[in-house]
Amino acid sequence: MKKVRWTALGATAVLSVALAGCAGMSHRDRSTATGAAIGGAAGAVLGGSTTSTIGGAAVGGIIGNQVGKDRDRKR
Question: H or E segment at 66?
């Protein structure tokens, strides 16, 4: 259980640093990447398996993409 939490924390930290270099991305792209990172971390913590991590990242990315699309329309 502790290994899964450390893995999720490490993945979140790596993705946070990677997202810092996303200055040239559109709002929708940033929302997709952020959603995937949050979903992947949540999947790892809640499910504890690689499958749940990948599933969480996929669902989070889809949700983030849709949120970003809505915000881009409002601009």
Answer: helix 50-74
